[in-house]
TrEMBL record:
Name the record gives this protein: Acyl carrier protein
Record keywords: Phosphopantetheine, Phosphoprotein
Pfam (any one): PP-binding
InterPro entries with a match to the protein in the record: ACP-like_sf (IPR036736), PP-bd_ACP (IPR009081), Ppantetheine_attach_site (IPR006162)
Segments forming domain Carrier: 3-84
Gene3D superfamilies documented for this protein: ACP-like (1.10.1200.10)
Length: 88
């Protein structure tokens, strides 16, 4: 991963942490391997709210079929980074 790509990923990750902190986290520390459903207990409505916030913040459109590959915060950050690159 190049330095620019790594920096972008870290910025995305920090942004996602900020967004996720407003959801109940069951007393866990958010990390890259935090599972959005199993660890955080996000339901479909929470996920839709999160996606809307991600789209607004990063100026991207997140296709719903992308979410089938997303389990962890890291998966989500990777997908957001991919979508940003595709829209550049």
């Amino acid at each position: 991963m190049s330095t620019d790509t790594g920096n972008q990923y870290q910025e995305i990750l920090q942004g996602l942490y900020g967004m996720l902190e407003r959801f109940p986290t069951r007393n866990i520390d958010l990390q890259e391997q935090t599972d959005l459903v199993a660890d955080m207990g996000l339901d479909s409505i929470n996920v839709m709210e999160l996606l809307q916030e991600i789209e607004d913040r990063f100026d991207i459109i997140v296709p719903l079929n992308v979410m089938s590959d997303v389990r962890t915060v890291q998966d989500l950050a990777t997908q957001v980074q991919r979508l940003i690159r595709e829209n550049s």
